[in-house]
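Hi P.,

Sorry for the delay on this. The queue was packed all week, but I finally got your sequence through. Input first:
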Amino acid sequence: MAQRMFVVGPESVRMLDLGHPWIIADKFTAAWPKGAPGEVIALTEKGGRFLGSALYAPGERIVARVLDRKKMAVNRVWLLERLTAARDLRRNHLDLAGTNAYRLVNGEGDGLSGLTVDLYGDYLMLQSYSAAWKPYLQSVADVLKELMAPLGIYEKFRPQETRELSAKGASTRYSRLLSGAAAPSDLVVEENGLRYGVDLADGLNTGLFPDQRENRRDLMGRVKGKTVLNLFAYTGAFSVAAAAAGAQKVISVDTSGAYLGRAQANFELNRLNPKRHEFVVDDCFKALERFVREKRRFDVVLFDPPSFSSTRKSTFATRGGTADLASAACAILAPGGLLIASSNHQKTELADYLKELRRGALQANCDLKVIGIHGQAADFTYPVTFPEGRYLKYVLAVKG
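Then the structure:
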C-alpha cells in the first residue's frame, strides 16, 4: 500500500532536518487528512521533498513519530532488523555482568519511537507511549519470541493521567499477557549481582527502575562504613545496594508502607538483615524536619523522587521541590558528606536542575561542590539528535 503524503510546516521541516523524530501537533498538522492510529505516512515539505516515514497518531500531542528516513512498512522484516540491532547493541557494548533486568529497546534510541521493551529475567515487558503502536504489538511480540525466546511477554499500559490515578486509588492492574506463560508475582531478577523482586502484572511500575543500574553500582563504591539516608526509597533498590556494599546503616524513607515492605523483602533476598537498618513510613520533608530536631547526621543523603507525586500525605513537584529538598538535606548532611540528587523529569534540563540545587544550597547557607554528573544507564540509549532522550539527572555533590 502506497504511503499517503502529509505536509509539515517550516518549523517541523527544520527539526526533521536536524534529525528529530517527533512531529508536534500544530496548525499545519491540524489540516492533515483523517487517518487511523498506526498508519505509516510520508512526511513532506510544501515543495514535495520527502522527509521520512512516520507512524500517524491523530489526536495526540506527538501526532507523528518518524521511524525511517526512507519509505518503509512496519512488517516482520523491518521489525526484525530494528529489534536485532537493539539486542546486538546491548550484547556488544554494555557491561551486563550479574544483570538480567535491563532495557532491550529504548524507543527513539533504537529507531522505534514511542515503544520500549524491558527484559526481566525470562520475561519481556512492552510499553507503548502512543496508540499508533497498538496495531503492531502482536507483530513485535512475535519477532521478540524469535529473537529472545522469553517465557512470557507482557504489555504495560501507560495511563494518560497518572496524577489523578494515584490520588483516586484506581485499579493497579496496568498489564496484560501478550504471549506465553504468566510470570510469578514474586519474580526475582538480578542487577549488579544483587537480587530484587518485581511484579510484572500489578502497578504502574514493576518495582525496579533499570535506568539507575549504573548509578547504584557507582553508589556501592562510596558507602562502606557510612550512614546512608535514602529518601523516596520506593522498594529499596538503592538501599539494598548500599547495605550490600557495607554501609554501616541505611535509613529508607517513603510514604508507602507497602513499598517499604517490599524493600525489606529485597534486603532478605540478599541475606541482609533488615533489622540492622531503618525503614521509616513518612513524608520525606516531615522526616527531614524530625531528623533536624533529633540532631541526626548522615554521611550520604540520596533523594530520587518521582517527577510528580500526590498522596494523602504530600505533594511533590520537581520544580521548586528540589530546592527545598536540597536545603533540608544540607541540614542533616555531615561535613564532607555526599549529597546525591536525582530526577527523571524529562522537561527539566540539567542546567535548570543545577539551578534548583544551587537555590537549595543558598537557602541552607551550604557549600556544595559537584564531583559528578551522571545520566541513565547505557541501555537507555538515545540519538544525539534527540536531546529529550537524556532525561535522567544524577548529581553528586560534597558538603564543604
